[in-house]
């Protein structure tokens, strides 16, 4: 195998991995940090994709600029949903495990509502458009601009959020909340507010990821679930709540998948991905960068 | 308390009103007991794309047309309205099987229509067979069908061996003309892709085609650029992708992104969707599995196309949609000639030449033996039939122009 093929595969794997990291960001915030097991994560991504599709095809808005609409809209919707549904469960003062299972049930409901809502609005027909599907030449290899962009954005947002969690007061409050809810309350953290904003930010990230994904793949109301599964694997592999771990895990999965598609004569992708997950969890039960 | 009683009263009165209205309306429109036709369709889940393009719209169209004519003509009983008992199978095979069991035993429907897709049809064919319901599948293509042989199951779509023979025929012709020399083949690692790939081996060898690169990839793949790059590096000038719709769109996007523009570019499922044409700005020169277009001379073809566009505000696809419509045309004729006796319908299916929007259809051992496999090519907005020659609506344009 020539070095140029290996280089090609490496970059293609890293780009796919960047995409996975992007998809996992929002779920990491919700599940990794807040223990809201949002199985409708992929559905919010799907809605983001459709919103971008509609804005772009109906009004000619640049798909990249649509995130300025989809992100804030999802954030607002997230605050609303939180007040309507999740705040009640927080009030009950239950254990984190109980909260996780309750939120799981809730998000199943959301999943069906979003899927069927999208089905009514956009029908089951494939939808898609072409944006930045231009070849970029880099060290003698050719890569599509839109994928590079999505991967780069994933990296940027992940690093940005990591810095935010580590260096700002709000970030400290989030980490405190995750470690000990009562303790955080004692030192003056407004649990409900922080919780609501984290949840909303998670939705916003999912939606923005959807906006970017819509530049690459076709949409149907049912594309969500595989993204949710990938995101869960990435979050667990990287370590719950660890943004950099998520990025590493996403890149690792992307590489593993790309190479297995290249070399296996049959579909090894899923087997290889889960083998990697199992091995990592055997050696490091809390994930790559988990504590 | 008062509030609750109030609501209950309201509901009772409301329900009575609704049922009265239903009875009255029923009486006004009644021309005999409806003919009840049961089926499941994938309104939700991954199959909903295909189901929503190739099957459900055509059945809805047919039912509308039949009822507008005063109902389905049943031999000896005059016209009876068509009533569908349709359930969403959520793209789950076991759900579909359960509902078909129910349709046959509980609902005791008069006739059955099939669900969407090869895997689904495989699962419900034994049920239809067990209860003696003739079922004509317009979206099933598999060599295994012949081996299994369910006497009550009929496949109206072209099967893998015929399709691959058509591909090979066109490619051989282009090779003798000196337009292509190196074939690159990729297939989706799924029952459909594997069967197509296996069926291709014989005809491609017989046509002396030089297959220089063969690759497969899993269903749901997110990146095919390494595959497309490998084909480009191998100097492939005839690309054959035995694809499903999502990977079809992915590999076509990535062919363009990687400057891979071979003179012949053929993909399989999805190419005949109008969506594909619109997605790739005309998709000029892209070839794919075809079976029909509005230009064919079969009786009713143009009318079918126009009625479809009028009812659904979207064009039918250029492969299986017309076969779905043809399958209910066939059923309609059977019921008109032998009534609703399902054994007699089966006998008629086995021994009759039918005239449909896809041309003459005759079943031999449950498989449509008359509709030839065809290759289409997007040319100026229409999926022209370019192979076989005697049915072609246009000549193949090779080399294909640059990607739009």
Mean pLDDT of chain A: 85
Structural class based on helices, strands and sheet pairing of chain B: alpha/beta
Which chains make the largest contact?
Answer: A-B, 39 and 40 residues
Query: What share of residues of chain A is helical?
Result: over 70%
Strand arrangement within the widest β-sheet of chain B reads 9-8-10-11-12-17-18
Task: Give, in spatial order, the strands making up the sheet with the most strands of chain A.
Answer: 1-2
Total DSSP E strands of chain A: 2
Q: Flag low-confidence runs of chain B.
A: 1-30
* Residues in helix, % of chain B: 40-55%
**Radius of gyration of CA atoms of chain A, rounded to a whole number:** 19 Å
Total strand count of chain B, please?
18
Mean pLDDT of chain B: 90
Order of helices and strands of chain A: HHHHEEHHHHHHH
Radius of gyration of chain B from CA coordinates = 23 Å
Structural descriptors:
heterodimer; A: mainly alpha; 11 helices; about 5% strand; globular; B: about 400 residues; seven-stranded mixed sheet; three-stranded parallel sheet; about 45% helix
């Amino acid at each position: 195998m020539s070095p140029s093929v290996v280089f090609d595969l490496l970059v293609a794997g890293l780009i796919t991995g960047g995409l996975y990291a992007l998809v996992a960001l929002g779920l990491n915030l919700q599940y990794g940090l807040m223990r809201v097991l949002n199985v409708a994560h992929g559905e919010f991504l799907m809605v983001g994709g459709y919103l971008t599709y509609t804005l772009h095809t109906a009004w000619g808005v640049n798909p990249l600029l649509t995130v300025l609409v989809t992100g804030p809209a999802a954030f607002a919707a997230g605050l609303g949903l939180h007040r309507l549904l999740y705040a009640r469960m927080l009030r009950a003062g239950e254990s984190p495990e109980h909260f996780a299972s309750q939120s799981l049930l809730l998000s199943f409901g959301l999943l069906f509502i979003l899927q069927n809502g999208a089905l009514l609005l956009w029908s089951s027909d494939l939808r898609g458009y072409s944006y930045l599907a231009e070849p970029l030449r880099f060290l003698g290899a050719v890569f599509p601009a839109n994928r590079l962009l999505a991967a780069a954005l994933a990296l940027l947002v992940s690093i940005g959020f990591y810095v935010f969690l580590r260096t700002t007061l709000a970030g400290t409050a989030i980490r405190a909340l995750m470690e000990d809810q009562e303790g955080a309350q004692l030192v003056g953290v407004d649990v409900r507010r922080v919780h609501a904003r984290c949840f909303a930010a998670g939705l916003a990230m999912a939606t923005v990821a959807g906006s970017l994904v819509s530049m690459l793949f076709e949409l149907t109301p049912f594309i969500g679930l595989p993204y949710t599964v990938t995101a869960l694997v990435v979050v667990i592999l990287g370590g719950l709540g660890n943004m950099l771990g998520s990025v590493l895990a996403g890149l690792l999965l992307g590489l593993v998948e790309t190479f297995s598609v290249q070399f296996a004569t049959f579909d090894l992708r899923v087997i290889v991905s889960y083998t990697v997950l199992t091995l990592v969890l055997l050696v490091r039960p809390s994930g790559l960068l988990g504590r | 308390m008062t509030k609750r009683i109030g609501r209950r009263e309201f509901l009772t009165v409301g329900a009575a009103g609704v049922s009265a209205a239903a009875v009255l309306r029923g009486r006004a429109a009644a021309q005999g007991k409806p003919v009840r036709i049961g089926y499941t369709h994938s309104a939700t889940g991954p199959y909903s794309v295909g189901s929503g393009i190739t099957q459900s719209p055509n059945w809805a169209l047919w039912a509308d047309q039949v009822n507008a004519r005063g109902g389905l003509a049943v031999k000896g009983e005059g016209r009876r309205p068509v009533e569908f008992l349709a359930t969403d199978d959520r793209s789950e095979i076991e759900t579909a099987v359960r509902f078909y069991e129910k349709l046959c035993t509980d609902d005791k429907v008069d006739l059955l229509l099939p669900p969407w897709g090869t895997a689904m049809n495989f699962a419900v064919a034994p049920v239809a067979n067990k209860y003696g319901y003739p079922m004509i599948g317009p979206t099933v293509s598999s060599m295994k069908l012949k081996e299994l042989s369910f006497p009550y199951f009929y496949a109206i779509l072209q099967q893998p061996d015929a399709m691959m023979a058509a591909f090979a025929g066109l490619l051989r012709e282009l090779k003798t003309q000196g337009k292509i020399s190196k074939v690159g083949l990729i297939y989706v690692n799924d029952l459909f892709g594997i069967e197509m790939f296996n069926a291709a081996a014989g005809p491609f060898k017989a046509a002396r085609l030089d297959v220089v690169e063969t690759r497969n990839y899993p269903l749901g793949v997110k990146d095919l650029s390494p595959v497309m790059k490998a084909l480009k590096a191998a100097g492939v000038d005839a690309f054959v992708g035995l694809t499903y719709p999502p990977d079809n769109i992915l590999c076509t996007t990535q062919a363009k992104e990687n400057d891979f523009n071979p003179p012949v570019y053929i993909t399989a499922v999805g190419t005949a969707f109008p969506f594909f044409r619109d997605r790739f700005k005309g998709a000029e020169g892209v070839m794919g599995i075809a079976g029909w277009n509005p230009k064919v001379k079969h009786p009713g073809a143009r009318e079918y196309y126009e009625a479809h566009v009028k009812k659904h505000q979207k064009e039918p696809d250029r492969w299986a949609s017309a076969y779905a419509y043809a399958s209910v045309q066939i059923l309609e004729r059977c019921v008109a000639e032998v009534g609703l006796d399902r054994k007699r319908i089966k006998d008629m299916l086995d021994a009759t030449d039918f005239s449909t929007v896809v041309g003459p259809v005759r079943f031999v051992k449950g498989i449509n033996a008359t509709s030839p496999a065809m290759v289409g090519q997007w040319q100026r907005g229409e999926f022209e039939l370019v192979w076989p020659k005697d049915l072609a609506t246009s000549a193949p344009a090779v080399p294909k122009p640059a990607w739009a």
